Amino acid sequence: MIASEYVDNLARAGLPSATGNSSLVLDTLGTLITVVSPANNILEFDLGRCSGYYVFDVEWLKINGEWKYRHTLLDAISNCIIDDAIYDTEDETTVEKFLKESTTNKNKKAITTDLDSKYPQIIEKLGFKHQLCIFHTKKSLNRQLKVFKDKFRLLRLNTKNVINNWK
């Protein structure tokens, strides 16, 4: 829903709404929400009140035939976007720069990521605890168990063949 629709719905519900360039302030789940300008369709929350628990991910996008990388940082408690940017690379330098700029003057407790091996060092360097995404951890564990099961099945079949041929 765009901000102007949001303001219209509030007005229909009999709640105070923003007019002109003034802003609308709501307290939702303890997070300050501000519609800065309904005409510009901007909806944001008070970044100074970030929980300190973040989720970071990089999405691969193909734009005009070229791969780009969308770096996104979310507040894990309020589910609000802290920062979002598209870069040409997904290397350690870019990730560190993005996270450092995105978390300057904000609470720093933990960042949850997928299992990418470059993240732990960067996150610790920036003063956060590193947490692994449960979904990605389970996915990796299932993949490793399948490989183990397939190897064990082959080993078991080979052992049966050796025993059967020995008799």
Compose a concise summary of this entry.
The chain is an alpha/beta fold. The protein contains four helices and eight strands; from the N terminus they run αββββββαβαβα.
Report the CATH C-level class of the largest domain. Alpha Beta
Q: Tell me the distance between the termini.
A: 74 Å
CATH homology group of the largest domain: Ribonuclease H-like superfamily/Ribonuclease H
Point out poorly predicted stretches.
Answer: 15-43
Structure write-up:
The protein is built from four helices and eight strands. By secondary structure, it is α/β, with parallel strands linked by helices. The protein has two domains: 3-45, no CATH class; 50-136, Nucleotidyltransferase, domain 5. Helix 3 (119-125) links the parallel strand 7 (110-113) and strand 8.
Keywords:
single chain; alpha/beta; 2 domains; five-stranded mixed sheet; 8 strands
Write the layout of secondary structure elements.
Blueprint: H1 3-12, E1 24-28, E2 31-37, E3 42-45, E4 53-63, E5 66-75, E6 81-87, H2 92-103, E7 110-113, H3 119-125, E8 129-132, H4 134-166
Parallel strand pairs: 4-7, 7-8
Antiparallel strand pairs: 1-2, 2-3, 4-5, 5-6
